[in-house]
Amino acid sequence: MSTERFPRGKTAIVGTATFGCGAAPGYSSMELAHQASVMALAAAGLKPADVDGLFVAITDDALSGLTFAETLGIHPRFLDNNRTGGSSFQVHAMLAALALDAGLCDVALIAYGSNQRSSTGKLVQASRPSPWESAYKPLRPISSYALAAARHMHQYGTTKEQLGAVAVAARQWAQLNPEAFSREPLTLADYMSARLVADPFGVRDCCLVTDGAAAVVMTRADRARDLCRRPAYLLAGAQATTHREIASMADLTVTGLAEAGPRAYAQAGVSANDIDVVQLYDAFTINPILFLEDLGFCAKGEGGGFVEGGRIAPGGTLAVNTNGGGLSCVHPGMYGLFTIVEAVRQLSGDAGDRQVADAKLAIAQGNGGELSHEALLILGTEETL
Amino acid sequence: MAEGAITMNPEREYFEHLAAGRFMIQRSRSTGGHVFYPRVAEPGTGATDLEWVEASGRGTVYSTTVIRQKAPTPNYNLALIDLAEGPRLMSRVEGIAPEAVKIGMAVNAKLVAENEQTLVVFEPL
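^ Those are the sequences you sent over. The predicted structure of the assembly is below.
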């Protein structure tokens, strides 16, 4: 395999915004994304006409990149509509870094919005039904992740209480975040008594169904300091695709992050020990357990024990999903862009009551499909360049 | 489209076999590798000499869940089964309570008619 020459530290995120997180009745998905985009651009002193690199993956429009550009008056030199599921935005940021570094664009905008809560109340399903699996009535995506959790429990003795520790930690972070949708207290006893959906998962193992939009603006590093008080530099980006449907996942306890994580660390020249803040795509409680293992924060099989005892909750040893995550903050169909926004807020010192002191290195991870596509960015402050 | 015939239209032929009461999977003549779900080439090698062979029907539960329903609709099982030939597929285990299906359980395939189609499901050995 060739050496990966990611343009480490050559680009930076100079503006971020979220809009309509929770319930935003009356808005279309595109309108939500546009609102967040205008706000993110304004944060960097920019306007839509300044954008010449555009990255959009709005689920309810297959040509959403074109629609987005037209409506906001953007004439991109570089447009990408790539979609890998909830991890699409990590891929967008990687492509944006490559395009910016190569001079193919100067100002890149990554945007997403969804009104799924207000429009349908259900998770948006934008993919075809499987001819091989539909007849067995899988409750996708929940049952696919439940099968992974069941296998992890069988193989490593992971317990329902350990899954619960993930849900409780997410809620405790959410209580520190005014933007979070679910902020009422959640105890382990509440979690354990929640209605079962697909064993071992109950309703508290599953992410929220909310509206929401996010946007991120990127430029080359030499311009970043003029636009932003504290840019978040992109040090690494890596992805791995392992399958599409859960039956084709070789080992339900090992995700593509086991490949992508080491590649990203090598690009950035850092290791898991150096990371201050970790934003993981917690569509379900098993996800952070699998991802912490695969990213090297603990050994394979030890993720259940790792998340116990408040270790990933506020005041714990590792700050994970400091906004409250998809479980308690926001999950509008695809969550990956929100992990990037929260990582940047932590690195910029803008995270309010949930601010992690001296956060210099952050992971923003995305997950697509049914543990099918995994991607991560490593972001750092100026000191890490 | 007899046993041993090279696959031409994998998806259509698979369901035609099923409708005729045969659970068939593919095997590459050159590599010997078994393939499920049906497709035009063996994944990885790209071998297109895939012929239909009858599945042994023997399998092991790789993972299992219970899809919970509002009463009185009964809960049902959803499982991933590793076939003795190697490939894994999604199915369900019948004949025991959905909660009683366990990872590692030896199971055997049977064909059932449901919603005007033939389905491969599994029973404990």
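The longest helix of chain B spans residues 10-19. Helices of chain B lie at 10-19.

Shout if you want it in another format.
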